[in-house]
Amino acid sequence: MQSDPFSLIMIAWLIKTTLQFSTPLVLTALGGMYSEKSGIVNIGLEGMMLIGAFSAVAATYFTDNPWMGILVSVIAGGALAAVHAIITVKLKGNHIVSGTGVILFATGFTTLMLEVIWGQRGVSEQVTPVPQLTIPGLSEIPFIGDIFGSLSPIVYMMFFAVIISWVVMYKTPFGLRVRAAGEDPSTLDAAGVNVETVRIIGVIISGCLAGLGGAYLSIGYGSRFGKLMTSGRGFIALAALIFGGWSPIGSFLAGTFFGFLEALDSFIQLTIPALAPYNNFIQMIPYILVVIALAGIGRSRPPKAVGVPYEKEMRA
Fold first, then answer.
1. Which in 32, 50, 153, 245 has the greatest CB count within 10 A?
2. Domains identified in the chain, total number
3. Using one digit for the tens of pLDDT, what is the confidence trace for 161-188?
4. Domain hosting residue 226, numbered range
5. Among the ranges 9-13, 66-70, 257-261, which has the highest mean pLDDT value?
6. Are 86 and 73 in contact (CB under 8 A)?
7. What is the pTM of this model?
8. 195-215 and 66-85 helices cross at what angle (nearest 10)?
9. Which residues pair with 123 in a beta bridge?
């Protein structure tokens, strides 16, 4: 029995769309992993994504170079994360309050700058998006070519980031220090490693990856910035991090699952109009799972020292 070509095309479209929707979630979840593995709660990922999305478009608008937009988005996300790191690590501030402040700042700043730069509050002008990456010969392969024949380079960066993060976290001295900072910082300090430095670096990395995730939304998948365009994806990424057990592979799988749910919504609208009235339920699923994850239901165990300020004089 031969497969229906239309069915194969739609399945390929669903897989490709899943990858596209998953990319910002996975990148941001990986960023959250570096922060929380080091002991710093980072609910500000939403704000870091938003500032990355805006910075990517603004830099592309002024330079007409989307690659410069990607670079600036990573720097902007890292800079905002550095503020969160200073407040939580150096000043021993409350992690939740600081993360909320990051989100509020990013929301207000990007809304203001939309009006300053483009004279409007809703969306920016269209800019040059990151060109799609076409792998020679791959697009000619049936089914596989429909999925991977032409994708944003940031999608491939996402796969690369997952692999690199696994290697860094479990096969390098730096990864060991990050994990120790979140599990038993006193032991890390006793070994002569500055716990605060490790935590600050972990938080900054989280902002850089979240900024890249935001850039994908604005110039990787789209070509302009819209007010509040992250639409809660930072919180979904945080849930993916928790469901994934604070690990690179787990974050990838959970982020892909959430991306699949978002793609499934679009798939149903295109192929099964009769189920369109139930789309709202499908759209609710990621947010329901976010609530479940943030409530701590499940087997995921966070790092022991996450959210706990470290003081040298408190060592045993």
1. 50
2. 1
3. 999 999 999 999 999 999 999 999 999 9
4. 23-300
5. 66-70
6. no
7. 0.91
8. 140
9. 226
Strand partners, 173: none
Between CA 316 and CA 301 the distance in angstroms is 24
Q: In this predicted model, what pLDDT tens digit does every residue of 233-250 receive, in sequence order?
A: 999 999 899 888 899 999
Quick check: 99 and 44 in contact, CB under 8 A? Answer: yes
**Distance separating alpha carbons of residues 119 and 259, to the nearest angstrom:** 33
Residues 261 and 282: beta-carbon distance below 8 Å: yes
Asked whether residue 310 is domain-assigned, the answer is no
pLDDT tops 80 at residue 278: no
Q: What is the pLDDT of residues 248-257, one digit of tens each?
A: 999 999 999 8
- In b/e form, how buried is each residue of 117-152, taking b as 16+ CB within 10 angstroms? bbeeeeebeebebbeeeeeeeeeeeeeebbbbbebb
In a domain, 1, yes or no: no
Q: Is residue 9 part of a domain?
A: no
Give me the pLDDT at residue 293, please.
61
Closest CA to 20 of 208, 161, 155: 155
Q: Residue for token digits 């989100």?
A: 103
Beta bridge partners of 201: none
Question: Between the CA of residue 95 and those of 86, 101, 210, 281, 295, what are the distances in Å?
Answer: 11, 10, 17, 32, 17
Phi–psi pair at 313, nearest 5 degrees: -70, -10
pLDDT value at residue 297: 52
What is the spatial distance between Cα 213 and Cα 28, in angstroms, rounded to a whole number?
6
pLDDT top residue among 243 and 138? 243
One-letter amino acid of 66:
P
12: in domain: no
